[in-house]
Amino acid sequence: MGDLVHVCPPEAFYQQFLSQLSINRTDDAIRALMPLESRPGLISLLVGKPNTSCFPIKSLSFSAQDPCDSSKEIPITLSPEELEVGLQYSPTTGIPNLVDWLYKLQEICHGRKRSEGWKLSVGNGCQDLMYKAVTSFINPGDSVFLEAPMYPGVIPMFQTIQCDIHEVETDANGMCSHKLRQMLENWPTSKPKPKILYTVPYGCNPTGMTVSLERRLEVLDLAHEHNFIILEDDPYYFVYYGKAPRPPSYFELEKQQGRIGRVIRFDSLSKVLSSGLRLGFASGPLPLMRAIDRHSTNANLQPNSMAQVLAISVLSRWGHEGFLAHTTRVAQFYREKRDIFEAALRRHLTGLVEWSSPESGFFIWFKLLLTEDGTDGCSEAAIRTHAFERGVLALPGTVFLPSGRKTAYARASFSQLEPDQVDEALRRLKEAILDARKTGCKE
Ligand SMILES: Cc1ncc(COP(=O)(O)O)c(C=O)c1O
User: Fold this and answer.
1) Partners of 267 in the beta sheet?
2) What is the position in ligand 1's atom list of the atom closest to the CA of 278?
3) What Pfam families has UniProt attached to this entry (predicted)?
Protein backbone atom coordinates (compact mmCIF):
# COMPACT_ATOMS: atom_id res chain seq x y z
CA MET A 1 0.00 0.00 0.00
CA GLY A 2 2.81 2.36 0.95
CA ASP A 3 4.10 2.41 -2.64
CA LEU A 4 0.91 3.74 -4.23
CA VAL A 5 1.27 6.94 -6.18
CA HIS A 6 -0.13 9.69 -3.98
CA VAL A 7 -2.41 11.77 -6.09
CA CYS A 8 -2.74 15.19 -4.49
CA PRO A 9 -5.07 17.74 -6.10
CA PRO A 10 -3.30 20.75 -7.66
CA GLU A 11 -2.94 24.01 -5.72
CA ALA A 12 -5.80 25.71 -7.64
CA PHE A 13 -8.24 22.99 -6.54
CA TYR A 14 -8.18 24.28 -2.97
CA GLN A 15 -9.25 27.82 -3.88
CA GLN A 16 -12.91 26.69 -3.62
CA PHE A 17 -12.38 25.78 0.05
CA LEU A 18 -11.03 29.17 1.15
CA SER A 19 -13.29 31.74 2.78
CA GLN A 20 -13.44 35.28 1.44
CA LEU A 21 -11.72 36.42 4.64
CA SER A 22 -8.84 34.11 3.91
CA ILE A 23 -8.63 35.14 0.25
CA ASN A 24 -8.51 38.79 1.35
CA ARG A 25 -5.89 38.16 4.01
CA THR A 26 -2.45 39.42 3.04
CA ASP A 27 0.97 38.28 4.24
CA ASP A 28 2.84 40.03 7.01
CA ALA A 29 5.69 41.66 5.03
CA ILE A 30 8.28 40.98 7.74
CA ARG A 31 7.28 37.38 8.53
CA ALA A 32 7.17 36.55 4.81
CA LEU A 33 10.91 37.34 4.60
CA MET A 34 11.93 35.77 7.91
CA PRO A 35 12.79 32.32 6.48
CA LEU A 36 15.55 34.05 4.43
CA GLU A 37 17.36 34.96 7.66
CA SER A 38 18.68 31.40 7.92
CA ARG A 39 20.73 31.82 4.70
CA PRO A 40 24.42 31.28 5.62
CA GLY A 41 26.49 34.46 5.75
CA LEU A 42 23.48 36.78 5.55
CA ILE A 43 23.38 39.80 7.86
CA SER A 44 19.77 40.52 8.73
CA LEU A 45 18.50 44.04 9.30
CA LEU A 46 14.96 42.75 8.94
CA VAL A 47 13.12 42.09 12.19
CA GLY A 48 12.90 44.35 15.22
CA LYS A 49 13.74 41.51 17.59
CA PRO A 50 14.59 42.54 21.13
CA ASN A 51 18.13 41.74 22.24
CA THR A 52 17.84 38.70 24.51
CA SER A 53 20.73 39.96 26.69
CA CYS A 54 18.20 42.48 28.04
CA PHE A 55 15.86 39.71 29.23
CA PRO A 56 16.07 38.83 32.93
CA ILE A 57 15.71 35.01 32.63
CA LYS A 58 19.28 33.67 32.54
CA SER A 59 18.91 29.92 32.99
CA LEU A 60 16.25 27.26 33.18
CA SER A 61 16.54 23.82 34.76
CA PHE A 62 13.76 21.33 35.44
CA SER A 63 13.20 17.60 35.37
CA ALA A 64 11.00 15.27 33.33
CA GLN A 65 9.73 11.80 34.07
CA ASP A 66 11.67 8.93 32.53
CA PRO A 67 9.18 7.51 30.00
CA CYS A 68 10.23 3.92 30.74
CA ASP A 69 10.40 4.19 34.53
CA SER A 70 8.00 6.65 36.16
CA SER A 71 9.91 6.51 39.44
CA LYS A 72 12.92 8.18 37.76
CA GLU A 73 13.38 11.76 36.62
CA ILE A 74 15.66 13.11 33.89
CA PRO A 75 17.29 16.43 34.83
CA ILE A 76 17.20 18.98 31.99
CA THR A 77 19.06 22.29 31.77
CA LEU A 78 18.41 24.39 28.69
CA SER A 79 21.59 25.28 26.80
CA PRO A 80 22.19 29.02 26.22
CA GLU A 81 21.12 28.49 22.57
CA GLU A 82 17.89 26.72 23.59
CA LEU A 83 17.13 29.45 26.12
CA GLU A 84 17.77 32.12 23.47
CA VAL A 85 15.28 30.44 21.09
CA GLY A 86 12.71 30.15 23.89
CA LEU A 87 12.98 33.82 24.83
CA GLN A 88 12.85 35.14 21.27
CA TYR A 89 10.35 35.44 18.41
CA SER A 90 10.41 32.34 16.23
CA PRO A 91 8.90 31.06 12.96
CA THR A 92 5.14 31.28 12.43
CA THR A 93 4.75 27.53 11.93
CA GLY A 94 6.89 26.38 14.86
CA ILE A 95 10.54 26.15 15.87
CA PRO A 96 12.41 23.95 13.38
CA ASN A 97 13.61 21.17 15.70
CA LEU A 98 10.11 20.68 17.17
CA VAL A 99 8.57 20.76 13.69
CA ASP A 100 11.12 18.14 12.47
CA TRP A 101 10.33 15.93 15.48
CA LEU A 102 6.59 16.18 14.82
CA TYR A 103 6.96 15.36 11.11
CA LYS A 104 8.75 12.18 12.16
CA LEU A 105 5.95 11.44 14.66
CA GLN A 106 3.34 11.73 11.88
CA GLU A 107 5.37 9.30 9.79
CA ILE A 108 5.56 6.81 12.66
CA CYS A 109 1.91 7.13 13.71
CA HIS A 110 0.17 7.70 10.37
CA GLY A 111 2.67 6.59 7.73
CA ARG A 112 2.73 10.10 6.24
CA LYS A 113 6.19 11.10 5.04
CA ARG A 114 7.28 14.72 4.89
CA SER A 115 7.45 16.14 1.36
CA GLU A 116 4.54 14.03 0.11
CA GLY A 117 2.40 17.08 -0.61
CA TRP A 118 1.35 18.09 2.89
CA LYS A 119 2.54 20.45 5.58
CA LEU A 120 2.62 20.66 9.38
CA SER A 121 2.20 23.78 11.53
CA VAL A 122 2.38 24.18 15.29
CA GLY A 123 -0.21 26.28 17.12
CA ASN A 124 -1.20 27.30 20.63
CA GLY A 125 -3.16 24.08 21.16
CA CYS A 126 -5.20 22.44 18.44
CA GLN A 127 -8.09 24.71 19.41
CA ASP A 128 -6.09 27.67 18.08
CA LEU A 129 -5.43 25.90 14.76
CA MET A 130 -9.04 24.79 14.43
CA TYR A 131 -10.32 28.29 14.94
CA LYS A 132 -7.96 29.48 12.22
CA ALA A 133 -9.06 26.66 9.92
CA VAL A 134 -12.75 27.34 10.43
CA THR A 135 -12.44 31.06 9.72
CA SER A 136 -10.11 30.40 6.78
CA PHE A 137 -12.48 27.99 5.07
CA ILE A 138 -16.06 28.94 5.87
CA ASN A 139 -18.12 31.89 4.70
CA PRO A 140 -21.39 33.00 6.32
CA GLY A 141 -24.17 30.88 4.85
CA ASP A 142 -21.88 27.99 3.77
CA SER A 143 -23.15 24.55 4.65
CA VAL A 144 -21.06 22.42 7.02
CA PHE A 145 -21.35 18.95 8.52
CA LEU A 146 -20.76 18.66 12.25
CA GLU A 147 -20.97 15.38 14.08
CA ALA A 148 -23.54 15.47 16.86
CA PRO A 149 -23.14 15.31 19.76
CA MET A 150 -19.86 17.17 19.42
CA TYR A 151 -17.10 18.98 21.30
CA PRO A 152 -18.81 22.18 22.50
CA GLY A 153 -15.55 24.14 22.33
CA VAL A 154 -15.89 24.48 18.57
CA ILE A 155 -19.66 25.00 18.26
CA PRO A 156 -19.39 28.78 18.79
CA MET A 157 -16.81 29.02 15.97
CA PHE A 158 -19.35 27.75 13.48
CA GLN A 159 -22.29 29.59 15.00
CA THR A 160 -20.43 32.93 14.99
CA ILE A 161 -19.78 32.65 11.25
CA GLN A 162 -23.52 32.04 10.83
CA CYS A 163 -22.98 29.08 8.59
CA ASP A 164 -25.63 26.52 7.75
CA ILE A 165 -25.04 23.71 10.24
CA HIS A 166 -26.08 20.13 9.43
CA GLU A 167 -25.72 17.65 12.29
CA VAL A 168 -24.48 14.17 11.41
CA GLU A 169 -25.71 11.54 13.83
CA THR A 170 -23.25 9.38 15.78
CA ASP A 171 -23.76 6.13 17.70
CA ALA A 172 -21.61 3.60 19.57
CA ASN A 173 -19.49 3.13 16.39
CA GLY A 174 -18.94 6.84 15.88
CA MET A 175 -20.19 8.88 12.94
CA CYS A 176 -23.09 7.19 11.13
CA SER A 177 -21.60 7.26 7.64
CA HIS A 178 -24.76 5.76 6.11
CA LYS A 179 -26.75 8.70 7.46
CA LEU A 180 -24.16 11.06 6.01
CA ARG A 181 -24.53 9.30 2.65
CA GLN A 182 -28.32 9.68 2.81
CA MET A 183 -28.00 13.38 3.58
CA LEU A 184 -25.66 13.89 0.64
CA GLU A 185 -27.68 11.82 -1.79
CA ASN A 186 -30.84 13.74 -0.90
CA TRP A 187 -29.14 17.13 -0.94
CA PRO A 188 -31.26 19.79 -2.71
CA THR A 189 -29.81 20.57 -6.14
CA SER A 190 -30.40 24.30 -5.57
CA LYS A 191 -27.96 24.46 -2.66
CA PRO A 192 -24.15 23.92 -2.62
CA LYS A 193 -23.14 20.85 -0.61
CA PRO A 194 -21.07 21.26 2.57
CA LYS A 195 -17.36 21.77 1.97
CA ILE A 196 -16.31 20.86 5.52
CA LEU A 197 -17.00 17.96 7.87
CA TYR A 198 -15.86 18.18 11.51
CA THR A 199 -15.31 15.01 13.54
CA VAL A 200 -13.41 13.68 16.58
CA PRO A 201 -12.50 10.13 15.49
CA TYR A 202 -11.03 8.59 18.67
CA GLY A 203 -12.63 8.96 22.09
CA CYS A 204 -15.05 11.58 20.84
CA ASN A 205 -15.77 14.36 23.30
CA PRO A 206 -18.47 13.82 24.70
CA THR A 207 -19.41 10.26 23.65
CA GLY A 208 -16.01 8.57 24.11
CA MET A 209 -16.68 6.63 20.89
CA THR A 210 -14.11 5.64 18.29
CA VAL A 211 -15.21 5.45 14.67
CA SER A 212 -14.99 1.97 13.12
CA LEU A 213 -12.75 1.35 10.11
CA GLU A 214 -15.70 0.66 7.80
CA ARG A 215 -17.29 3.98 8.64
CA ARG A 216 -14.01 5.85 8.25
CA LEU A 217 -13.63 4.38 4.77
CA GLU A 218 -17.17 5.35 3.84
CA VAL A 219 -16.70 8.92 5.13
CA LEU A 220 -13.49 9.22 3.09
CA ASP A 221 -15.24 7.90 -0.02
CA LEU A 222 -18.00 10.46 0.51
CA ALA A 223 -15.44 13.25 0.87
CA HIS A 224 -14.20 12.39 -2.63
CA GLU A 225 -17.61 11.75 -4.16
CA HIS A 226 -19.18 14.92 -2.76
CA ASN A 227 -16.14 17.17 -2.52
CA PHE A 228 -15.60 18.07 1.11
CA ILE A 229 -12.63 18.38 3.47
CA ILE A 230 -12.50 16.38 6.71
CA LEU A 231 -11.37 18.28 9.81
CA GLU A 232 -10.03 15.42 11.94
CA ASP A 233 -9.86 16.87 15.46
CA ASP A 234 -7.91 14.23 17.35
CA PRO A 235 -6.63 15.25 20.80
CA TYR A 236 -7.43 11.79 22.26
CA TYR A 237 -5.42 9.73 19.76
CA PHE A 238 -2.67 9.11 22.31
CA VAL A 239 -5.07 8.18 25.10
CA TYR A 240 -6.76 5.36 23.21
CA TYR A 241 -7.33 2.40 25.55
CA GLY A 242 -9.87 0.35 23.58
CA LYS A 243 -9.56 -3.47 23.53
CA ALA A 244 -9.40 -3.71 19.73
CA PRO A 245 -6.35 -2.30 17.93
CA ARG A 246 -6.83 1.37 17.09
CA PRO A 247 -8.15 1.80 13.51
CA PRO A 248 -6.00 4.03 11.25
CA SER A 249 -6.65 7.77 11.30
CA TYR A 250 -8.33 9.49 8.36
CA PHE A 251 -4.94 11.05 7.66
CA GLU A 252 -3.36 7.60 7.37
CA LEU A 253 -6.26 6.03 5.48
CA GLU A 254 -6.22 8.60 2.71
CA LYS A 255 -2.58 7.75 2.05
CA GLN A 256 -3.33 4.03 2.10
CA GLN A 257 -5.94 4.70 -0.57
CA GLY A 258 -3.41 6.60 -2.67
CA ARG A 259 -5.52 9.76 -2.90
CA ILE A 260 -4.36 12.31 -0.39
CA GLY A 261 -5.50 15.87 0.15
CA ARG A 262 -8.94 15.61 1.79
CA VAL A 263 -7.95 15.57 5.46
CA ILE A 264 -6.60 18.17 7.86
CA ARG A 265 -5.55 16.49 11.05
CA PHE A 266 -5.40 18.35 14.36
CA ASP A 267 -3.17 16.85 17.04
CA SER A 268 -2.67 18.04 20.58
CA LEU A 269 0.04 17.69 23.19
CA SER A 270 -2.46 18.84 25.84
CA LYS A 271 -3.63 15.45 27.02
CA VAL A 272 -0.22 13.78 27.28
CA LEU A 273 2.45 16.45 27.83
CA SER A 274 0.79 19.50 29.34
CA SER A 275 -2.43 21.37 28.62
CA GLY A 276 -0.87 24.56 30.00
CA LEU A 277 1.94 24.58 27.43
CA ARG A 278 -0.83 25.14 24.83
CA LEU A 279 0.75 23.16 22.02
CA GLY A 280 -0.99 21.44 19.15
CA PHE A 281 -0.20 20.84 15.48
CA ALA A 282 -2.13 20.57 12.26
CA SER A 283 -1.19 18.50 9.21
CA GLY A 284 -2.83 18.87 5.83
CA PRO A 285 -2.75 20.02 2.19
CA LEU A 286 -0.30 22.86 1.53
CA PRO A 287 -2.73 25.54 0.28
CA LEU A 288 -5.09 25.02 3.23
CA MET A 289 -2.27 24.98 5.75
CA ARG A 290 -0.84 28.18 4.26
CA ALA A 291 -4.21 29.85 4.84
CA ILE A 292 -4.01 28.82 8.50
CA ASP A 293 -0.43 30.11 8.72
CA ARG A 294 -1.46 33.45 7.25
CA HIS A 295 -4.12 33.74 9.93
CA SER A 296 -1.38 33.11 12.54
CA THR A 297 0.87 35.84 11.18
CA ASN A 298 -2.12 38.21 11.34
CA ALA A 299 -3.47 37.11 14.70
CA ASN A 300 -0.65 36.13 17.05
CA LEU A 301 2.51 35.91 14.88
CA GLN A 302 3.47 32.41 16.10
CA PRO A 303 2.98 29.81 18.83
CA ASN A 304 4.73 30.44 22.15
CA SER A 305 8.52 29.94 21.68
CA MET A 306 9.30 28.93 25.27
CA ALA A 307 6.50 26.35 25.37
CA GLN A 308 7.94 24.80 22.22
CA VAL A 309 11.49 24.78 23.62
CA LEU A 310 10.31 23.10 26.82
CA ALA A 311 8.39 20.50 24.80
CA ILE A 312 11.23 19.65 22.42
CA SER A 313 13.79 19.58 25.22
CA VAL A 314 11.75 16.75 26.76
CA LEU A 315 10.72 15.05 23.50
CA SER A 316 14.22 15.02 22.02
CA ARG A 317 15.63 13.40 25.16
CA TRP A 318 12.85 10.80 25.20
CA GLY A 319 12.93 10.09 21.47
CA HIS A 320 9.80 8.95 19.63
CA GLU A 321 9.95 5.56 21.27
CA GLY A 322 10.09 7.15 24.71
CA PHE A 323 7.16 9.44 23.85
CA LEU A 324 5.05 6.47 22.75
CA ALA A 325 6.02 4.53 25.90
CA HIS A 326 4.86 7.54 27.90
CA THR A 327 1.54 7.83 26.05
CA THR A 328 0.90 4.09 26.48
CA ARG A 329 1.26 4.57 30.22
CA VAL A 330 -0.97 7.64 30.17
CA ALA A 331 -3.67 5.70 28.26
CA GLN A 332 -3.47 2.90 30.83
CA PHE A 333 -3.91 5.48 33.60
CA TYR A 334 -7.16 6.73 32.04
CA ARG A 335 -8.38 3.22 31.31
CA GLU A 336 -8.16 2.52 35.05
CA LYS A 337 -10.05 5.77 35.78
CA ARG A 338 -12.75 4.68 33.32
CA ASP A 339 -13.02 1.25 34.95
CA ILE A 340 -13.40 2.80 38.41
CA PHE A 341 -16.08 5.15 37.11
CA GLU A 342 -18.01 2.40 35.37
CA ALA A 343 -17.88 0.18 38.46
CA ALA A 344 -19.40 3.03 40.49
CA LEU A 345 -22.03 3.64 37.79
CA ARG A 346 -23.07 0.00 38.06
CA ARG A 347 -23.07 0.21 41.86
CA HIS A 348 -25.20 3.34 42.17
CA LEU A 349 -27.05 3.94 38.94
CA THR A 350 -28.12 0.64 37.45
CA GLY A 351 -31.66 1.15 36.15
CA LEU A 352 -31.29 4.93 36.30
CA VAL A 353 -28.78 5.51 33.48
CA GLU A 354 -27.54 3.76 30.31
CA TRP A 355 -24.16 4.19 28.70
CA SER A 356 -21.64 2.66 26.28
CA SER A 357 -18.10 2.15 27.47
CA PRO A 358 -15.68 4.76 26.06
CA GLU A 359 -12.47 3.57 24.36
CA SER A 360 -10.42 6.71 24.63
CA GLY A 361 -10.54 10.07 26.35
CA PHE A 362 -11.91 11.26 29.65
CA PHE A 363 -15.69 11.11 29.36
CA ILE A 364 -18.74 8.95 30.00
CA TRP A 365 -21.78 9.92 27.97
CA PHE A 366 -24.83 8.56 29.70
CA LYS A 367 -28.55 8.60 29.18
CA LEU A 368 -30.67 9.50 32.20
CA LEU A 369 -33.75 7.32 32.53
CA LEU A 370 -35.99 10.02 33.89
CA THR A 371 -39.49 8.87 33.16
CA GLU A 372 -41.47 5.96 34.54
CA ASP A 373 -43.11 5.27 31.15
CA GLY A 374 -39.77 4.81 29.36
CA THR A 375 -40.13 7.89 27.11
CA ASP A 376 -37.06 10.09 26.73
CA GLY A 377 -36.80 12.84 29.31
CA CYS A 378 -34.56 15.91 29.22
CA SER A 379 -31.37 15.96 31.31
CA GLU A 380 -31.25 19.77 31.58
CA ALA A 381 -33.02 20.28 34.93
CA ALA A 382 -31.80 16.97 36.36
CA ILE A 383 -28.17 17.97 35.81
CA ARG A 384 -28.23 21.76 36.11
CA THR A 385 -30.62 21.95 39.07
CA HIS A 386 -31.10 18.66 40.91
CA ALA A 387 -27.53 17.38 40.58
CA PHE A 388 -26.07 20.77 41.48
CA GLU A 389 -28.32 21.01 44.54
CA ARG A 390 -27.12 17.57 45.61
CA GLY A 391 -23.51 18.80 45.22
CA VAL A 392 -22.40 17.38 41.89
CA LEU A 393 -21.58 19.25 38.70
CA ALA A 394 -21.78 17.72 35.21
CA LEU A 395 -22.88 18.85 31.75
CA PRO A 396 -26.38 18.35 30.30
CA GLY A 397 -26.23 16.84 26.81
CA THR A 398 -27.90 19.77 25.07
CA VAL A 399 -24.65 21.79 25.17
CA PHE A 400 -23.06 19.19 22.85
CA LEU A 401 -25.69 19.65 20.17
CA PRO A 402 -25.29 22.61 17.79
CA SER A 403 -29.10 22.82 17.52
CA GLY A 404 -29.37 22.95 21.33
CA ARG A 405 -32.25 20.48 21.19
CA LYS A 406 -33.43 18.54 24.24
CA THR A 407 -31.71 15.29 25.12
CA ALA A 408 -31.78 12.78 27.94
CA TYR A 409 -27.97 12.48 27.80
CA ALA A 410 -25.32 14.08 30.00
CA ARG A 411 -21.52 14.02 30.17
CA ALA A 412 -19.32 13.24 33.14
CA SER A 413 -15.56 13.65 33.14
CA PHE A 414 -13.58 11.06 35.11
CA SER A 415 -10.00 12.20 34.42
CA GLN A 416 -9.32 13.92 37.75
CA LEU A 417 -11.28 12.09 40.42
CA GLU A 418 -10.04 9.65 43.06
CA PRO A 419 -12.16 6.48 43.61
CA ASP A 420 -13.83 7.79 46.79
CA GLN A 421 -14.81 11.02 45.00
CA VAL A 422 -16.29 9.03 42.10
CA ASP A 423 -18.26 6.93 44.55
CA GLU A 424 -19.64 9.95 46.36
CA ALA A 425 -20.38 11.86 43.13
CA LEU A 426 -22.39 8.99 41.72
CA ARG A 427 -24.21 8.40 45.01
CA ARG A 428 -25.26 12.07 44.85
CA LEU A 429 -26.20 11.75 41.18
CA LYS A 430 -28.49 8.86 42.07
CA GLU A 431 -30.30 11.09 44.58
CA ALA A 432 -30.53 13.84 41.97
CA ILE A 433 -32.05 11.52 39.37
CA LEU A 434 -34.59 10.26 41.89
CA ASP A 435 -35.44 13.91 42.71
CA ALA A 436 -35.80 14.66 39.00
CA ARG A 437 -37.98 11.61 38.41
CA LYS A 438 -40.45 12.94 40.97
CA THR A 439 -40.86 16.12 38.94
CA GLY A 440 -41.01 14.16 35.62
CA CYS A 441 -38.17 15.86 33.70
CA LYS A 442 -39.63 16.21 30.24
CA GLU A 443 -38.44 19.79 29.76
C1 LIG B 1 -12.30 17.37 20.99
C2 LIG B 1 -11.37 18.43 21.46
N3 LIG B 1 -10.72 19.18 20.57
C4 LIG B 1 -9.85 20.14 20.95
C5 LIG B 1 -9.61 20.39 22.28
C6 LIG B 1 -8.62 21.46 22.64
O7 LIG B 1 -7.30 20.93 22.61
P8 LIG B 1 -6.03 21.86 22.84
O9 LIG B 1 -5.77 21.90 24.31
O10 LIG B 1 -4.92 21.21 22.07
O11 LIG B 1 -6.35 23.21 22.30
C12 LIG B 1 -10.26 19.63 23.25
C13 LIG B 1 -10.04 19.90 24.68
O14 LIG B 1 -10.71 19.44 25.57
C15 LIG B 1 -11.16 18.62 22.83
O16 LIG B 1 -11.81 17.83 23.71
Assistant:
1) 281
2) 9
3) Aminotran_1_2
Q: Which of 231, 14, 241 is nearest to 129 (CA)?
A: 231
Pocket test for ligand 1, best of 270, 283, 308, 334 (most atoms within 8 A of CB): 270
At residue 197, φ and ψ (nearest 5 deg) are -130, 130
Q: Are 17 and 137 in contact (CB under 8 A)?
A: yes
Q: Say whether 418 sits in a helix, a strand or coil.
A: coil
Residue ranges and CATH numbers for the domains of the chain are 17-61+76-323 (3.40.640.10), 362-439 (3.90.1150.10)
Q: CB-side exposure of 443: number of CA atoms within 13 Å?
A: 2
Question: Which atom of ligand 1 lies closest to the CA of 280?
Answer: 10
Q: How far is CA 334 from CA 70, 311, 323, 360, 382, in A?
A: 16, 22, 17, 8, 27
Closest residue by Cα to atom 6, ligand 1, is: 127
Alpha-carbon span 377 to 322, nearest angstrom: 47
CA distance 165 to 162: 8
Q: Which residues contact 26 (CB under 8 A, 6 or more apart)?
A: 294
**HSE-CB for 356 with a 13 A CA cutoff:** 16
Pairing of strands 174-175, 164-171: antiparallel
Question: CB of 126 within 8 A of CB of 279?
Answer: no
Among 132, 151, 154, name the best residue to mutate to test ligand 1's pocket (greatest count of ligand atoms within 8 A of Cβ): 151
Distance CA 223, CA 240 (A): 25
In whole angstroms, give the CA distance from residue 293 to residue 202: 26
Please report, in angstroms and rounded to a whole number, the separation of the first and last CA atoms in the chain: 52
Please state, in angstroms and rounded to a whole number, the distance separating the CA atoms of residues 123 and 94: 7
Buried b (16+ CB within 10 A) or exposed e, 333-353: ebbebbebbbebbeebbeebb
pLDDT at 147 over 80: yes
pLDDT in tens, 242-264: 988 999 999 999 999 999 999 99
pLDDT digits (tens, 9 = 90+) for 10-64: 999 999 999 999 999 998 899 889 889 889 999 999 888 999 999 999 999 999 9
Establish how many alpha carbons lie within 13 A of residue 159's alpha carbon, considering only the half-sphere containing its beta carbon.
Answer: 10
Confidence of residue 374 (pLDDT cuts 50, 70, 90): confident
Q: Which amino acid is at 11?
A: E
- Residue with the bigger pLDDT between 126 and 243: it is 126
Distance CA 36, CA 358 (A): 48
Arithmetic mean of pLDDT, 403-431: 96
